[in-house]
Specification:
By secondary structure, the chain is α+β, with helices and mostly antiparallel strands. The chain has a single domain (about 5-105), classed as Alpha-Beta Plaits, CATH 3.30.70.120. It has 2 helices and 6 strands, in the order E-H-E-E-H-E-E-E. The strands form 2 sheets. It has a 4-stranded antiparallel beta sheet with strand order 2-3-1-6, covered by helices on one side. It starts with 5 loop residues before the first strand and ends in a 7-residue tail after the last strand.
């Protein structure tokens, strides 16, 4: 096993609908990733939070690969109109999707 040492950890949150494409993109780069199911606070939507360990110099490639497959899209939420005698929903456009990426330096990495 002759792998380059892990130097950074990407914590990346993607929408559940982008999960399979994100996994494939990381697999194509030869990057190992672990994901945990998570839930967004604002819309209560299901997400996936990836933990991606990367060797030095591989961070930009991973971020670019995720940018290509984790798309933002507009969805419409039905919210009741304020002051209306009947609770008629008014569709509100909301941008969802994409990816949120946090990069953390790794001081120590052990595998056993």
């Amino acid at each position: 096993m002759n792998r380059r040492p892990i130097r950074s950890l990407l914590m990346t949150v993607v929408q559940e609908s982008d999960l399979d494409l994100a996994l494939k993109a990381l697999e194509d780069l030869g990057v190992s990733a672990v994901y945990l199911t998570s839930m967004g606070g604002f819309l209560g939507r299901r997400n996936a939070t990836f933990l991606i360990g990367l060797p030095e110099g591989a961070e930009e490639q991973a971020v670019e690969a995720l940018k290509k497959v984790c798309r933002q899209r507009v969805e419409y939420l039905a919210l009741p109109m304020e002051g209306s005698p009947m609770p008629l929903p008014a569709p509100i456009p909301v941008t969802v999707g994409g990816a949120t990426v946090f990069t953390l330096p790794v001081e120590r990495f052990e595998e056993f």
